[in-house]
Amino acid sequence: MAPQSDSGKNVQHGAALWHGRFTQEPAQELMAFTQSLSFDQQLWPFDIIGSLAHVHMLGATGVLPSGDVAVITEALHAVRTEFETGVFVFIETDEDIHTAIERRVTQLCGDVGGKLHTARSRNDQVATALRLWCKHNVAQIVQRTFGLVETLVLRGDESGWGQDGIYLPGYTHLQRAQPVLLAHHLAAHAWAMLRDIDRLQQSLERLDVSPLGAGALAGSSLPIDPSVSAAQMGFGKVFANSLDAVSDRDFVAEILFDLALLGTHLSRMGEEWVLWTTEEFGFAHLDDAFATGSSMLPQKKNADIAELARGKTGRLIGNLTSILVVLKGLPLAYNRDLQEDKEPLFDSVNQVSLALTAMTGMIASATFHPDAMAHAADAEALAATDLAEWLVQQGMPFRQAHAVIGELVRQVLVSGESLKSLTAAHPSLGAQAAQLIGDGVGVRQRKSPGAAGPASASVQQKLLRQEIDRLQKISA
Ligand code: ARG
Questions:
Q1: pTM attached to this predicted model
Q2: Which of 81, 144, 272, 317 gives 356 a disulfide partner, CB atoms 3.0 to 4.6 angstroms apart?
Q3: Buried (b) or exposed (e) across 420-453, using 16+ Cβ within 10 A?
Q4: Lining residues, ligand 1, CB within 6 Å
Q5: Which domains does the chain have, with CATH numbers?
């Protein structure tokens, strides 16, 4: 059946764009299994940008007369308006967004619409639309990540970097280890997020290459100029190898890795918030708007955002695995397998976007409990390393000092006496060393460059701001 040429609004039937050599219409089963329209519809703005650039190039190179270019361009604008106003109607033979748009252009402008696909294949078309989609959507993820970084820095600044800054125990093996400034702890997550931004920006730079003009796989016999359409779409570069242009999905794999790692960072942070907001830790509580209740247990207030930030990482890692497995073993150039690139990509971008804003809101609105943090961090045992280092300053080899203090800690456990009194009475330690044990003392002992106390805070604050500014300039 030939495409109908009415206004198109209620058209339900048509023929596949590639129907020429076929004697039968596609089976329902084939369409149901091979269609991508159900998930690639969101590419429409980028398919139209690509088509506008392509037809512009066909005009600029003299492949199409300017009259045809004007007619097709007008039809593409009309299709854009139909999408924007929600009146675009798909028909059952629309395999994907690309065939749907070309079909509709031809309905609107008649046979001349059939010239839009001159020197173009869906293979370079889909690769173009997907790269444009990434440029737009990944840039938004970067902005949301900046939002979370700024929130972490702000909450850190509020909690103080100075002598009276809020501090909590730092942990190793989830056992209390040494006191750290809360600002330092929050900044640790900010540094990880800044590396995520750096990676995403580098991936964006690498994917900024137009594949349009590669055709199905080997270019065209017509005098096209891919650099013209690339410039029109705002790509920084144009492909050098047509086979690579249509088959390369490295950019999808890279973004999925970047998002899997970003999600892993959110997951680690989420786990801490789950712990911090338990009654056992009691280091923070969540704003009601960013917590959930239980359907059965009236007293419950749960950190579901933090848990889902942790839980969603499963599918982010799954999506990365999925694209790598699809690509593995694929011969050049385009294979229909590549259609499987989109759902993992769209899913990860969507989920990470949601997670970033939810976590940002949760952290921005949470309340810290400095007393509970300080109480846990001022436990005497957390001064043990500082006592050993005091002995080192008296000339004792560290390994020996470690053993002396380890023995002292053992005596505390056995005798039930305080570490402070045993330290004061110890022949190698005494009153001066005992001053290392006391509320708020430990965090101020963290003095070396990059350490967790107030002494080096101003350096870190400056470095953090510098890195944020550097990355923001790249995104601007
Ligand atoms: N929907 C397809 C995809 O996403 C478009 C490319 C189809 N190309 C082809 N030769 N069948 O990959």
A1: 0.95
A2: 144
A3: bebbbebebbeeebbebbeeeebbebbeeeebbb
A4: 36, 40, 96, 122-123, 126, 334, 336, 338-339
A5: 11-118 (1.10.275.10), 129-165+176-202+240-375 (1.20.200.10), 378-475 (1.10.40.30)
